[in-house]
Amino acid sequence: MKNIYNSVFILFILLLTSCEKYLDVNFDPRNPQVAQGFAILPPIFSQMARGESFDTRYVGAYTQNWCTRTANNIWDQHGYAAGSDAAGEIWRSHYWSIGKNVDLIVDDATAKEQWDYVGAALAIRAWSWQRTTDQHGEIILKEAWEPNRYVFDYDTQDEVYAEVVRVANLALDNLNKTGAAVDEASLGRGDLVYKGNRAKWIKFVYGVLARNAHRLTNKSTYDPAKVIEYVDKSFTSNADNFAVPHAGTSSSDGNFYGPTRNNLANFRPTKFIVGLLDGTTFKGVKDPRISLMLAPSPDGKFYGVTPTKVDSTNNTNDPKRIPLLWGGAPTLAVASQPGIYIFKDNADHQIMNYSELQFMKAEAAFIKGDKPLAYDAFKKGIIAHMDFCKVSAANRDAYMTSAAVPQAAADLKLSDIMLQKYISQWVLGSVETWVDMRRYHYDPAVYTGFELPAILYSGNNGKPAYRMRPRYNSEYVWNLETLNKLGGADIDYHTKEMWFTQK
User: Is the model's pTM score more than 0.85?
Assistant: First the structure.
């Protein structure tokens, strides 16, 4: 436990040792001797992407973004791998890789009055608190990173939600400060995402606040007007997307979903996503994004697998053989996989995007009863994702005027919003999709065509998954007594609803 919460990313250990002034003549800027923000930010960005992408392998099975080609995989069944750290990477990233490194930036930047660095670091912490509690429910808040502690108490999810708001507002306070040490070029030295642009960081914080407020649709305190306000202060186009870049030259700097990393060989798209794109769900209208997001089978058509069912097409000579997510045949060597959509070695990892926020606004306005506003945001969400996919203007416009899209605000349904949001966030935002599906309790009236697996994991007691268990090698090895107070040792703990999903 101590190693999990009190360790700081090994990359920064050397940064903690200060030099005497008489040695400054030998200072190497490539190996700084203090924990400076510009040196710490880049690996933090990497860890933000790492946590989400690692855990998406399992979350994506729950949301049927994809599933394995084999029968009765436990994750496809909404189960979990007992005694494993699988689906514990967001936990690890929050408490260890990002963890105290945020404090290192804040302490160094505060001393230098670099308020933009302080604000960016706190923005990441607010985002990370939100992401971690949405994944795991009750988590360690008050005692997190407390030194010389081996056992930690858990805090309730509503307390963590309040902490997100507090930290986000602190981030805004600092990002709005000016001063001689607040400098775009200085922040841009370590800021691989926004290149030092404080205005975009402010928009990102408002996106975090929008997520936080919109989670509460099942609560009497839910305020759709507040969600709309936050979204309007957030991203205004795809140019504002929070996207972690990847060089893609090797496995060390490549996108987790790319062929070089070779993490997705056993995954196939599901019938659900194929049905949303091939006209099965949307009134026979084929979506122009289908050939940009998925690869066709040898017969030129698109197929998906059914969760918990074996992929019977996995045969070299089968004309219906389902290609890998990278776009090539399963028999094609990994090094020769073409890479399409976000499954390229150099593809960015989307932490938050404009399309997601517009669909969030559409849903909030729909709940509020303002259908014209909901309809406008709904269309902007679709168009933004079409542009992200590089759909031609002609194909985009044809789809927007087709039977797949309601042609009047009065005809807009909640399912229209959530299904189009599902498409726009497919894989790149599957962690966020899981939040939505749990808010609506996997309702097939909201997610038309979605069906829970015919066979659920034997330990589920007939219930779908609502949380990931805490990371095994920290909590179940070192902190089990505390975790047991929450029922963490129960075989169906992962099916226990979260605070934000409950009425």
Answer: yes
